[in-house]
Each structure stands twice: as C-alpha cells, then as structure tokens.
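Supplementary Methods S3. Input chains for the assembly prediction are listed below.
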Amino acid sequence: MQRRLLYRTLLVVVVVVVALYQLYPTVRVSGLEGKLERQLTELSRITGAPVADLRSALATGELEGKVRRLLADEPGTLDRATALVRQIIRTHEAVGSLQDRAIKKGLDLQGGTYLVYEVDIPGLLDQLAHNKDERFQEIVRASVAEMQATGGDFFDILRRRFDESNLRLSRYFGKMGESDDKIISDLRREAEDAVDRTLEKLRYRIDQFGVSEPAIHKQGAHRIVVELAGVHDVERAKRIIGTTALLEFKLEKDPQVVQATISAIDRTLRRIRSGQADTTALARIDTTQRASRKAEEAEVDVSELFGQAAEQVGVDTGQVVVDRQTFEEAPFSSLLRQLPGVTGEIAVPVQNMRTVDRLLKLPEIQNAIPRDAEFLWSSKPIRLGGSDYYLLYLVNRNPELVGKYITAANVRVGAGESSLRGNEPRVTLTLDTQGARIFARVTGANVGKKLAIVLDGRVASAPVIRERIPSGNAQIDGLDTMEEAKDLALVLRTGALPAPVEVIEERTVGPSLGQDSIDKGQKAAIVGAILVVLFMVFYYRGSGLIADFALALNIVLILAALAAFRATLTMPGIAGITLTIGMAVDANVLIFERIREELRTGKTVRAAVDAGFSRAFVTILDANVTTLLTALVLYQFGTGPIRGFAVTLSIGLIANMFTAVFVARVIYDHILARKPVTASLSI
Amino acid sequence: MEFLRQPNLDFIGVRKYMYVLSASLIAIGVISLIVHRGPKYSIDFLGGTAVQLRFEKPVQIGSLRQALATVGLGQAEIKHFGASNEVLVRMPGSGQNPSLVNDVVGAMSRVLADNPVEVRRVERVGPKIGGELRRAAVYAVLISLALLLIYISWRFEFKFAVGAVAALFHDVMITLGVFSLLGQEISLTVLAAFLTLVGYSLNDTIVVYDRIRENLKIFRRDTLESVINKSVNQVLSRTIITSGTTFLVVLTLFFLGGEVIRGFALALLVGIIVGTYSSVYVASPIVIELERWAEARKSAQRRPRPA
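Predicted structure tokens for the full assembly:
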C-alpha cells in the first residue's frame, strides 16, 4: 500500500515537472516580448520612427540599415542606437528560438488576418480555351451556377453539359479528335497544377512582403488558406497577395462607338421598363416637380427608377443619384456624368456604381453592347468637387498585348511630362523582344487613340498613344503613393498567378481588439476561477482545498498540453478553458457528495473515501466520455476557432479526469496515511 | 456546510405539470421561430461582410447611415457594439466586392472628418462557404446525436438513450427559442456553445442515470418511479453545486468576457438552466413513460384475443 502510494505520488510529480517544462518557453517568450517592446519603444524615441515600422524592419532584417539611414547625420546618437539595435536583434533571436515551443496566440488574440482564397477554375478554363464562342460561355456559366447550387464537381458538371448540348470538348480544348476522357483528365491535372503553382507564387510574394510568420496551405482541392499573424497593414498584404497580376493592354473604342452603345443601352432600358411603366415606375416619379426643378440631381430609390424591373435587375434597393430631367428618355445616361477636364471617358458617381454594374450585366443590355467590346471600370475613383467618381471605359474585348511578355517592372518617379503628375510614382515595364515588336506595331497603328492598361480587369491607366514606341518600354501611372507603386512592381515582377483567385472568406482582427480580447478573456477566467475556488473552500472546507489544488493543476496541464501539441490559443479557446474551470469541479463535487453520503451511513473515513472515489469514478467516466464525443464531432466539422474550442475542451476533460480523480486521491491517501482510523475528515 | 441534507422531494409526481411547462416553452420558441422565419443566422452562415469599427468619440447610428448612403450602402445594418463609440456594420450577401471595406471606411472618414475611425475587425464570408457551413452544422448535430444514442444504449439501456436525446432536443429547442425571442443571431461561436450545452446537459443527465442504474440493483422491489425519485433526490445537491459553479463562471464570461463572446455565454447561461431542469424533469420521466408503454404493449399481447 505504502509502496503503491509512493509510485503514484512520483507519477504526479513527473507529470507536473513535464508540464512545467512544456510551459517554460511560453513564460520566457512572454517575458522576452515585453523586453522587446520596451527596447523598440526606446529605439523609436531615439530615431523618431514609429514602433510598427521598426518592427516590420526587424522582421525583414533591415533594422540596422534603416537606423543607419535615419541617423546618418547624427553620429553621436547613431552609436547608441546601433548598440540598442544589436540588443534588439539578440532579444528577437531569443524569442525566435523559443517561439516554436511556446503557446501560439491565435489571430484573434494578436491581430492578423485569416484569408481563404479559392482558385477560380472556370476562370482558368476561360484562359485555356481556344475558339471561345457564345455557346461555350453559356455552358461554362450554366455549369458554374449548377456547381454553386449543388456543390457538385465542376468538371463532371461541365462534361455532362457538353454532352447534353452535343458539343465536343476538343473543339475548345486540347487537340482535334482527342477523346473527352483525356481532355477532362488533362484539365483536371491542369487545374490541380494551377492551384499548386498559385500556392508557390503566393508564398514567394508573401516572403517578399516580409511577414514574420505566414502560414500558407492548401485546403481541399481548390482552396488556399493564408494566415498572416500580427500584420498591421492588412489591406496592403491583401493587395499584394490577391492581385492576380493579369496585365492586358486593350485599345479603347472610338467616342462615336461609345456614344452609340450608350444610346443603345438607353433604348433597351426604356423597353425593359415600359413593361410596367404605366402603372408603377414612371407614375411614381413626380412629373410636376420635374418641371419646376430643372436638371436637378436628386437621390431616389433604385426601385423607384425601375419599378418591378429593379427586382428583375437584381439591384440593391439603395439610393442612386439621377438627373431627373434626362431620366425618362435616357434612363442609363441619367446615371452617368460628363466631367470637365476628364477627356472622353464616362464618369459614374460612386453611389451609382453598383447599379450601373448590375445593369451592364443584364443579358438584354449585354446584347446592346458590340460583340467585340466590353465595359471596364477604372481601378480607383477620381475626386472632383467633393464627390468620387469611377470612370467607365469601353474597350476592345481582345487584348493587344498581355503581361507574359514583361521581363522587368521597376518604380520610377515621374519626370514632369505634365506639371500635374510631376512627382508621381510610376511603374515602368520592360518587354521582351517579341513583346516590344507587338507593342511597336500596336502603338504605330493607333496613334491618337487611348490604350487602356488593364490589371485584373480594372483599368489602371489609359494614356493616349502619342507616337510609335519601338523601345519595348511601357509605363503605368496614376499611382498615389510610392508604396502602391512598389507593390504593383512586385506583383508584376513575380508574374501573374496561373489562375485568378478570389477571397471567399476573410477574418481580420485588429491588434487593439486582439489585446482587448486577451484582457477581457483573462479577466473573466480569473474572476470565474476565484469565485469557484472560494466556493469550494467555503462548502467543502479542507476537501475544497484539495479540489482547488486539482483545479489549479488542471489549468497548468491544459496550457502545457496546448504548448506540447503546438496548438494555438484563440478567444473561444480561452472560453473553453474558462468553461472547464466551471465544470472541472464537477468530478470532485461528485466524489465529495458521495463521501458525505457514505459517512452518513456510518462508514469509517477510509472506507467512505474508498467508496466515494470508486463509485463516483464510473459516473465521471460516463459523463466525460459523452462530452468528449461532442468535442470530437466539433473538431471534425468545425473550422478555425471552433476547432480551437474543441481542442481545449477535450484536453480540459482529460486533464480533469487525471487531476480530480487521480491526483485528489493521492492527496487523500497521504492525509489518511498519517491519521488514526477514528479521525474525522474535513469535508 | 451543506445546503440540502437528504432531501425527499416528489419530482416524479409532478412530472405531468412539467411536461406542460416544457411543451409550452418549446411551443413559444417554435412560434417565435416561425414568426421570424427561422433562426437569425450571422454572416458566418449567410455570407456577407461585417466590419467592426471604433471611433474616437461616440457616434450616432443615423449619421453613419447617412455616410454609408453616399456610397450606396444605405441599407446596411448598423448597430452599436458594446460601447457608444464602437459599431458593427453588416452587409449581407455582398461578399464579392473587394473594395467594400474601403468604401465603408472612406465614406465614414469623409462625413465624420473630426472623428477618426479604426477598423477593429473585418469578417467576410462568401455565400458558398456559408452554405457549406450550414451543411456541416447539420451533420455535426446529427452525428453527435447518433454517437450519443449508441454510447448511452451501450452503457445503460436504449430507453435511457431515448430519454437523454429527447432532453437534448428539449434544451436546444428552448435555447434556440430564447435566441429567437431576444433577436440574437446564430454565429459559429454560438453553434459551438450549442454543442457544448449538449455536452453539458448530457453530463447532468448521465449523473442522474448512473444513480438510477445503481439504485435499480439495490432496491429491486421498488417501482421504477420510486427508484428514479430516490436517485434524483440523492444527486440533487451535487446537481445544484455543479450547475451553480458552472453558472457562476459563465456569468462572469457573460459580463466580463467582452462583446465577442457574449452570444456564446448567453447560449450557455440558458443552456445550463434548461439542461439542469431537463435532466430531472425530461430525461428520467421519459424512461418511465417508455417503460409503461412497453409494459402496456406486453400485457396487451398476453391478453387472450376475443374469439
């Protein structure tokens, strides 16, 4: 008996030591991080640079260079600063070496972004296909719609739809006469390959961006998950990662064609609307008021403009700005503006953008646009007279030149061609010989026209071609900041992604909210724990102390297990731990109540303790296994935070079995071993 | 000290009234769900964009709505989130537009130029992901119920398993009803809370069942009703203490854990109350009803058929 107690005591001690060993790096890292923070603040005071900047320079290994540049004219302070930089680097390295074995804080706790990209397989097909025609587009569109509705496999759906419409796949893909089986399997491989190459390219871009601990991995067949911990400038990161960098040069249509197209759209819209004009839409626009308020702009509901057609159009039931005067004859034109100083293009007030965009996608209106042309938006709005406007361009559908001919992309500061854009940053592109030849031909043949530079379907800039450009140098301007230009050059240099990607899920937590979450979570956990601990001592006296000790050990074990499994602590995870605190005492309550019952029946202390533990154990096992089952299901079906919760809950339950039953028993046995048989128990 | 020393309350005798109470609570919840056309799902399940913003000074919802109207987003849902200078803007279904967040922030800083704004959190879920999650949630609930049925049937008896699962349905329906009545939305974390309350409620039920199983062996001559009543009384003080400590902790989570975790804590608060109640008044009485039903069938078979 004494021997067995010794062994069990040893086991408890070993578990505690292992747990503390696992927790050591976490404790150390949090200390070092505090030190790093202080050192960086000190450096920021000396150099005048913001802490966030210094931190990102530290992450990319440019801190010393940066400090040297900042303090180039002050040799005195420079010495002090460089000494501090060395210390900072040492602290940073110490953190780095321990970080792997410390508990990681989830993105929701330290701030950061969780992004799920989906590789656009239909978009990839569109790039791969040749002889694309209306029927092809229709089948792809229908297949996409079916995939979204049913969640089926895209390629299976595509193949069936091709079969149904008696079209051979070889007409669009692969070689003539190839079997559909082969083509589909080739396309599948191509798609898989595209996802892998996209993953590689994203990794490369993120490395260049200098994020300290990016996590990038594939999820399922077509998805890529990117986790950026502690990134402060999320928008910028997203811009770099998510830019497909599909660069195209497209000629803009002549103004006459643009005018004719808009008139055609106006006619079409009038026709759509006249379906119910007499009863609804037009009747509600107050014509008497219109007469008195000449050419006045007013905010109206979209539904008011288009009546029931609005639903058919599928537009938001938001507000748009229209010119009431022209609305009746030209419903589409009334949404547009002609801006002074902006030559040629159509300007659209930012409020109207969504409506215009949706209108343009209507099949009837698509038919009113020339087959070889398409409307594209400018990549950013221009500001005029206190309002923002996006520009709308009508360009040739087929590009003159694409980005694959680019050999280099660099940032320059404009050399004052026009006084307006004198010091604006711009990106210069160098084309290879073939690209230069095409560029020379295109510019030569189209002097006086505008050439739209299209990045991922948005017009970055549309300069007028002044003369034939034989050198193979093109440039993109209209960039606001140096940083933006650098980022654009980076994505163009690393090359286009093999297939377009789309963010299908984004969860971003700002660092301040992360800190708030930690503070609040910790506070709740501590207050909750104190309340429980006090109650247990109050209600069970000495035995309550044992339960409290078991509870404390339980929390240590949960944290140690998180560190050992390299798990990540999230806000729901903290909630899971807090909940475990509440439920952890359950096992001890069960045991204690049982012991009290047994004592009431007149058993000796030793017998009561024995019976209490052994009888309660069955119950505890059953109760915990059932909870564990739900935790496992949560883990299997959950994503991100839910998984974190399931993990901490499961670990908590198992740790709880050990501390509340095994450890508590060992303590009891120690107490009882020193007591005479007739002693009473503090319970 | 002790709260209840060997209580002897007649739980089973009053079970018929409790059936009425439970049925009414569930009915109220179901009616609320029908009126509101199902649970109010968060963007996790529906798809859409949510932006949490913090302003330097308190803001009025009306002025924010005007600001958003200038970029055509006048229909977005805006509400205060915790403090009066913090708001949550939700735009359902517009998960596709990448510049949406910029539009929102741009419009606000233009209109409220003297009140700087900080983006604290952005959540954007595509409609496809939302659909997948809804499917996964249904599977998760069904599979966990199936696993529990199997485990409890194995450890106890099938009729106990039915009682436990009925109690779970009861708890989930009532909690869902409370959420519907309060206009609280069901997000991923709330779903996790629901599954946790399933685990918790079960935990409670199992403790009672365990004592019934033990007492059935000891008091062989007693009726099932009296054994169950005795068992519930015996574990009553444990039930009260455990529910009490857990409730205490969840209450601190609710008040101190912050806005993000509040829905989660609310689900658990309601869940602990109904979970404790259901292990006494739903799970065990159903075992009695099942037993009676089985006996009635048996005796009906034994009775000679009229010629």
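The mean pLDDT of chain B is 86. Residues 259-302 of chain B form the longest helix (44 residues).
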